[in-house]
Fold this protein.
Amino acid sequence: MKDKIGIVVGIGIAAMVLVTLSLFVLNAGNLELNEIMPIGIVLILVAFAMYILWDRIKNVKKGLPAKDERLKLTNYKAGYYGFIAAIWSAVFAPLSFEILFDYELPGHLVTAVVVLVSGFVFATSYLYMYWKGK
Amino acid sequence: MKTRIKELRARYDLTQEDLAKKIGVRRETILFIEKGKYNPSLKLAYDIAKALQTTIDDLFIFEEEER
């Protein structure tokens, strides 16, 4: 039951993210490259979430658990890597924009970079460990 | 770390999925333990050993240099 609730909540969140993103794209008009890139990362994260949910549904249907101790460990490890990535991106994103483009990155964009980078690192490291078993 | 899970599964005619269902883990976890790519917790090792009617000591073979 807990597994099923988790799956339903996950699908709901992914759907809400997609709806929000669609509303943003429809109202944004002409999108520039710096706006398309974050949208791409969000879509990658949604695709990652959908893949994980599909895999959980597949397991639950077979009578296997959606999560076990290996996946919980994978989750913790990926969370740790995502956290480290968040810290480093919070430090280096404003610094690199200052050095490379002579542009002071506003606070809300730094937050966006931190969220997207940590999310991306979490997703890639999770998938790596998920497939490699480490 | 080497394991005798595959050998014992064959003895009891169990697939990875059957064993996974018996002990309540995902099939991939059994696969990775068999391949030596995941070290199970003591509890999981005990559950696997119990399901295969053996002991942890008999199921997992530690190489001296791994300790």
Remarks:
- The mean pLDDT of chain A is 88.
- The first helix of chain A runs from residue 2 to 28.
- Chain A touches chain B through 13 residues (CB under 8 Å).
- Chain A is about 85% helix and 0% strand.
